[in-house]
Write a structure and sequence with these properties.
21 strands; L,D-transpeptidase catalytic domain-like; alpha+beta; 9-stranded mixed sheet; two-stranded antiparallel sheet; globular; about 450 residues
Length: about 450
């Protein structure tokens, strides 16, 4: 991808270190962009190199380079405290899945009109359908997007697995490590979690470079980075991502069938249409508003209370201390409205899974239209006056190259391991037959 990779890391190592330092300190994106700006680097180069800064470089003996590329584990001043909440007018509240008590509470008959389609079904039939749909939505992980204190929408998301996984190990040169005896990749247990708390929500990175306009003319522009590919997790796609802190983002996922339950390696995942809409809101339609994300602890009383600050729940009686701090939501936005919004989003996902695919990997899509029986025309986010998808080039070409590189590295690692086994004279033990089993 980057012909001048050695030169980039050699001559510009101080620039990379400065970028990482500024990023960890929460310096405004323009300052970070100017620190990273290079007339020699193309937008595609930036996608490649900044992807390494997000989740770790995949090679090099230089310890400084490795340190510069490691994601920050501390939010620094990207963390927001209650005293500063009023400064942020765009708020994304993330509610993790429930194991004990759903943050939505208990079913109420008033939810029938929000959950059951108007049809020829009997009243009792609609009630049973609504109960079933509510029980399906109850454990789901979801987000609520609000602007100026008014909730706009709710959509289904996925946070981290909150568990240990086997993560492939690499040496200092970025090569996969193979166990010579078992002839398998060496792995290490790694805990994957999504951080709880309140954080700034900004574009991943802003970059000054030469971009194509919608008319195909190349001109100098200052644009936000719309997508990344993870070097650490098999070049997994992160389209229309927004930065939480360090390596944690909120971005798309190709795994629509996993949405609603813990599934990620730490980031917050959402569907492409939802990610496109949020990216456009924060990047293009903020009108000077600042954005934040509030990730609420699973099964916490705080999460239950916070949701009822956003929408009105007639059955909820706040504690005295909560009544002093919570701003009363408008009656127009009830808990039933939110459940209805979630239901619409859930139905979009189900239609997509049924009529299109369980997997979608690309720089944007729209939902299935039941009227036309095909996908609607997608509305791609803009990066300022440019269409992100056009300005940054075809991401699928970059993705194809990265995955080929990964496959080549794995093949080389196994080939090298086989040669080393031969050199050392390692042979597989002859299996001993069990007693009573004929040879």
């Amino acid at each position: 991808m980057l012909k001048r990779k050695e030169e980039f890391y050699g001559k510009n190592i101080s620039r990379l270190l400065l970028v990482t330092l500024l990023f960890s300190l929460g310096v405004p994106t323009r300052a970070r962009a100017e620190a990273f700006m290079s007339d020699e680097a193309s937008p595609e180069d930036v996608l490649e190199e900044y992807g390494q800064l997000i989740d770790g470089a995949d090679g090099g003996k230089d310890k400084k380079k490795k340190d510069a590329a490691e994601p920050m584990e501390s939010p620094g001043d990207r963390e927001i405290f209650p005293v500063d909440f009023s400064k942020y007018q765009i708020v994304v509240d993330v509610f993790r899945g429930s194991k004990t008590r759903s943050v939505l509470g208990k079913f109420d008959k008033s939810y029938v009109d929000y959950l059951a389609p108007i049809s020829k079904k009997s009243k009792s039939g609609r009630l049973e359908f609504a109960k079933g749909r509510f029980s399906t939505l109850g454990p789901k992980e979801f987000a609520v997007v609000s602007v100026d204190g008014e909730p706009l929408k709710a959509n289904i998301v996925s946070g981290a697995l909150e568990a240990e996984i086997d993560e492939a190990q690499r040496d200092k040169k970025g090569n996969y490590i193979i166990d010579l005896v078992t002839q398998t990749q060496v792995t290490k247990k790694s805990k994957k979690y999504t951080p709880n708390g309140n954080f700034k929500l900004t574009p991943i990175f802003d970059y000054t470079g030469d971009f194509k306009t919608p008319a195909g003319i190349v001109s100098r522009a200052y644009l936000p980075l719309p997508y990344l590919f993870s070097n650490k997790f098999e070049a997994s796609t992160m389209f229309y991502g927004l930065s939480i802190f360090g390596g944690y983002l909120i971005h798309t996922t190709p795994h629509y069938n996993q949405l609603g339950r813990p599934a990620s390696m730490g980031c917050v995942r959402q569907s492409s249409p939802d990610a496109q809409e949020l990216f456009d809101l924060v990047v293009n339609r903020s009108q000077g508003r600042l954005a934040m994300i509030r990730i609420h602890k699973m099964d916490s009383e705080e999460a239950y209370t916070r949701l009822r600050e956003i929408v009105y729940d007639a059955k909820y009686v706040p504690k005295p201390e909560d009544m002093l701090t919570a701003a009363p939501p408008t009656a127009a936005h009830t808990l039933g409205w939110l459940i209805g919004s979630l239901n619409v989003n859930y139905q979009h996902l189900q239609d997509f899974l049924t009529h299109v695919s369980s997997e979608y990997e690309g720089p944007g899509n729209a939902w299935w239209d039941p009227m036309t029986r095909k996908l609607a025309k997608p509305v791609y986010p803009m990066c300022g006056a440019y269409e992100c998808r056009v300005a940054w080039g075809d991401p699928m070409k970059i993705l194809a190259k990265k995955r080929k590189d990964i496959a080549d590295k794995k093949k080389k690692a196994f080939d090298d391991a086989a040669a080393e086994r031969l050199r050392l004279g390692i042979v597989d033990p002859i299996p001993v037959p069990s007693p009573g089993v004929p040879n």
